[in-house]
């Protein structure tokens, strides 16, 4: 199916080419210049929407929609759900209310409640004590911790949004510099006592 957009001025259909994400289009009806940013999902073939079927007299109906035919029960509470109300969470099929209850449970392993940003943590550990001169002595502990986080979580950082590893690199480099500074300071102190 060809991808089309509507003109924001006259609602006429605008043909969109399948190449390029930024396109300048001209409306064939009103001649308005339209600049469009096309996302890759727009150019994919349309995904089939769940088919809603009206229930007959003798059929089970959805708990939330009394006119729609039930397709499956909720694995948590047992309510009958139509195809529109069914939410797949891993291998389970849940209703919206049970999904909301699962999000409140801290021990639920099937849902991601938050993602720790270890790159920000590593950068904070090395930068905060360094910037505040009164707490610079804490870099003896925070710099090795930041270096550990940078090396350990470099391949393991995972969030829903893609993140670069630039912060890990900066945190690791600064940690090495701070640790080297501490090593030189300790060496000079020991050398001065001899």
What gross morphology would you assign? flat
Taking the alpha carbons of the first and last residues, their distance comes to 82 Å
Counted beta strands: 8
Helix content estimate = 25-40%
Please tell me how large the radius of gyration is: 29 Å
Could you give the order of strands across the largest sheet?
A: 1-2
pLDDT averaged residue by residue? 82
Give the low-pLDDT segments: none
Largest sheet: 2 strands, antiparallel
**Pairing-aware structural class of the strands and helices?**
alpha+beta
Output the helix-strand order: EEEEHEEEEHHHH
> How many helices?
5
- What does the oligomeric state look like here? single chain
Describe it for me?
With about 190 residues, the chain is an alpha+beta fold. It is built from 5 helices and 8 strands; from the N terminus they run E-E-E-E-H-E-E-E-E-H-H-H-H. The protein has 3 domains: about 5-45; about 50-105, no CATH class; about 120-194. Helix 3 runs antiparallel to helix 4. The strands form 4 sheets. A two-stranded antiparallel sheet has the order 1-2. The model has no long low-confidence stretch (mean pLDDT about 80).
SSE blueprint:
Layout: E1 4-6, E2 13-15, E3 22-26, E4 33-37, H1 40-43, E5 72-73, E6 80-81, E7 87-89, E8 92-94, H2 96-104, H3 118-131, H4 139-152, H5 166-193
Antiparallel strand pairs: 1-2, 3-4, 5-6, 7-8
Helix pairs in contact: 3-4, 3-5, 4-5
Short précis:
The protein is of the alpha+beta class. The protein contains 5 helices and 8 strands.
What key phrases describe this protein's structure?
194 residues; alpha+beta; 3 domains; two-stranded antiparallel sheet; 13% strand
